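Hi V.,

You were right to ask for the full record rather than a summary. Here it is.
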Amino acid sequence: MTLIIGGRYLLSSGFFAWLTNRVRPRQYDSLQPQISKEIRWSLASAAIYGIPAGIMAWGWQNAGWTKIYTDINMYPFWYMPISLLVYLALHDTWFYWTHRLFHRPAWFQIAHAVHHESRPPTAWAAMSFHPVEAISGAVVIPALVIAIPIHVGVLAIVLLIMTVMGVTNHMGWELFPRWMVQGKLGQGLITATHHEKHHELYRGNYGLYFRFWDKVCGTDIGLGSFDSSSREQRGK
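Predicted structure:
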């Protein structure tokens, strides 16, 4: 599982880094030392993520520990999209509150400062975490598959969304069209425009997929303008 997660990281981040070089050819030119650190931290995180994932994969196949199912008729068809939304909402909730915790001064110095060394973030920064923070992220999906039934295909979609959003929210420019980001859809979803504000200001915009908790808790900074060529990088 460590090899799979590490390979998934290299392929996804590598693809979006290649895309960045095509769309914005010089954006990463001065960031090669930073990118090297991001890759090292991310591969270490992949090793950590692989442990609970591997245990759950073994338990699913051999011990029946999980509620992952393969028979599409086991639950009503309408349950599949509902389970997708439930997983994303619970993952987002866990991420929001642990992320806020990691911004407490002590926890920031212990762990989260590693992630914020990426200034500006790049496509390689999606898994660039201190081991302590990596552990907090690694347990979420394994915990959910123990508790909440999910079809294996829907679980694959959850992992795909997690991977794509994790990379595209960090690559330093907005992939999605302005009409979507600044429209009604963008009012609820997190993209690079939203998450970049967090990396600039070191506060607010703590969510992973949705802006729900930021809005409820008053930590939604909003979007403003997003121009990676002229943004101001600020300290903590």
